[in-house]
Amino acid sequence: MKSRAAVAFGPGKPLEIVEIDVAPPKKGEVLVKITHTGVCHTDAFTLSGDDPEGVFPAVLGHEGGGIVVEVGEGVTSLKPGDHVIPLYTAECGECKFCKSGKTNLCQAVRATQGKGLMPDGTTRFSYKGEPVYHYMGTSTFSEYTVVAEISLAKVNPQAPLDKVCLLGCGVTTGIGAVHNTAKVKAGDTVAIFGLGGIGLAAIQGAVQAKAGRIIAIDTNPAKFELARDMGATDCINPKDHDKPIQEVIVEMTDGGVDFSFECIGNVDVMRAALECCHKGWGESVIIGVAGAGQEIRTRPFQLVTGRVWRGSAFGGVKGRTQLPGMVEDAMAGKIRLDPFITHRMPLEQINDAFELMHQGKSIRTVIYF
Ligand code: NAD
Ligand code: AHE
Ligand code: ZN
Ligand code: ZN
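# nicotinamide-adenine-dinucleotide complex -> structure
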């Protein structure tokens, strides 16, 4: 079938809106009509060419919501008409990772996913007869996409897809990192570096966890109003200080924070986020994605003296089992999605959404088809 899609033809090039061909779903696959998709910084990261897994041409996008159109052979858990959120972290329930009870990082389709292919090693997308690659197993920048059954969370059909699409990545990642990875408890002091969609969601998670003090850090002070609205108790611009930001935070917190979250993808900030943690017990969670060749550094003494470095993917959330509940929470007002949506625009304007993000003028743009 034909589908309007924003195709990334090469690194650093604007997306092109073209009509691609989408082949029917094969065994264990599902054809989904995407109604809405957010634009996450990770899409921009891959488009920039910094992603070692980036392949071109590809249909990017991984923060979508849609409706099942057709199911392939053997698909039993979904049927046409079901409302779904595509998952870049699948949940097969059967692999070593799923069964471990220790991680959400299902590996059932991860190897082919990282190559831009469906689990059978081929692509369902083509343009003018040439293959176009998938992205993160989701490719939500296409009106029609093909996704593995195990990479789809079935959600309440009453849920507004133009909002809950944000649970496909940003909001779930930030909230989940606080609850599942850090396990923030009432009264804890937290520092959140980077106040985009992920950082603001982490603030929301910290509020839910009843954190005592929530310190929000960004070099763009325009982000502070929304951070305060979300529940930040302190907002800091590192540019306002002539000493390293970790020193500023250690001084203002009587020795450091209980938990910090890096929501930027900057390895220098990752170091600051670790080093602003309290001696003996402070834990820092890396959420931001850094480019090929980047490495983190600190003095090992920082770890010897009890600080802990962790990482979090999709907030540690198991998509098929946990995301439907988070959608219910959003419908019940327990998760706020509206403040994240600063812009809405049709697919044709998707490059403007990337531009707004780069200029620091948006939190999330929701694209409709
Ligand atoms: P965003 O661009 O909307 O937000 C980033 C924020 O960081 C901006 O407000 C920017 O002003 C701020 N910032 C930039 N440099 C800074 C610095 N040196 N000090 C302080 N603040 C600084 O991005 P986003 O969509 O919120 O994504 C944030 C990061 O999280 C990206 O790296 C993205 O790839 C990553 N991410 C990871 C996961 C995961 O599962 N681990 C999921 C989603 C996104
Ligand atoms: N492909 C990159 C890594 C990208 C990455 O870290 N992705 C995050 C999700 S970002 C969503 O906005 C993630 O969940 N990673 C776990 C996984 O299995 O991909 C690289 O460096 O190769
Ligand atoms: Zn994302
Ligand atoms: Zn699995």
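# post-check
The chain has a mean pLDDT of 98.
Residues 256 and 278 are 4 Å apart (CA to CA).
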